[in-house]
Amino acid sequence: MPARLNTRERIIHASLELFNAQGERSVTTNHIAAHLGISPGNLYYHFRNKQVIVAELFSAYETWVDGFLRLPADRALRLEDKAPYLESLLQAVWRYRFLHRDLEHLLEADPELAARYRRFAARCLARAKHIYQGFVDAGILRMTPPQVEALALNAWIITTSWVRFLCSTGESTVTIDETLLRRGIYQLLTLEDGYVVEDARPALMMLYERLYVPLNIPSDE
Questions:
Q1: Which residues, 6+ apart, have CB-to-CB distance to 145 below 8 Å?
Q2: pTM for the whole structure
Q3: What's the distance, CA 20 to chain centroid?
Q4: Which residues are bridge partners to 141 per DSSP?
Q5: What is the mean pLDDT of residues 80-109?
Q6: pLDDT tens-digit profile of 60-92?
Q7: Distance between terminal CA atoms of the chain?
Q8: Which residues have CB under 8 Å from 20's CB, separation 6+?
Q9: Helical spans, DSSP H, in the chain
Q10: How far apart, in whole angstroms, are the C-alpha atoms of residue 186 and residue 123?
Q11: Minimal CA–CA distance to 109: which of 52, 166, 175, 41?
Q12: Calpha distance 175→171 (Å, rounded)
């Protein structure tokens, strides 16, 4: 844990660590307080319940995603912009992976958070469409507007469901390895494969190699 954090910041930092490691549903405010060596009353002084902690962590995640999921302000997109988008997304999902693992439960437990998440999702989908269209305008992808819309939606579905997919297939239960999340980003990239212009394909192949991680999904055969 970073040094010189005040108590409120320590609670947020510890909560994120515990939620990611054990799953949000398995962690109570008493667990968080015990982990920090503070009294439950001290924790409640800063946060009246666990939902408030979750909401603050979601705000941090939302701010992070809003920060990178946008078009450059002063130029057109270039092929070399693709890797930073993917790496930034990987870092955000990795740092706040509990949100993706426990999403339905979190939204059912907090109607206000659910409303915020719907606005966030709509904003992300709109921005993803703008980014994919930016690559079309730059001559890197060849797509129609309906295809751009479908690609943005499919990318969102993979991004928000990948952690739960790993848990449900036996790749992981609670602890998610960062390399397995990287495979999820690889899956996003493969969605574009049929739309990439020939000149951009060599760079795409390099990204494929960087992001590919084998999966060991159990089989009954």
A1: 133
A2: 0.88
A3: 13
A4: 196
A5: 92
A6: 999 999 999 999 999 999 999 999 999 999 899
A7: 45
A8: 96, 97, 98, 176
A9: 7-22, 29-36, 40-46, 50-68, 82-95, 97-101, 103-109, 111-137, 145-168, 178-190, 201-211
A10: 23
A11: 52
A12: 10
**Percent of the chain clearing pLDDT 70 (strictly above):** 93
pLDDT at 192 over 70: yes
Give ∠ CA 66-68-151 in degrees, rounded to 5.
Answer: 90
- Amino acid identity, residue 149? E
**Dist. CA 186–CA 180, nearest whole Å:** 10
Structure-token pair, residue 30: 């008493």
**How many residues does the structure list for the chain?**
221
CA angle 46/51/54 to nearest 5° reads: 85
Q: Walk me through the domains of the chain, giving residue ranges and CATH numbers.
A: 7-46 (1.10.10.60), 50-211 (1.10.357.10)
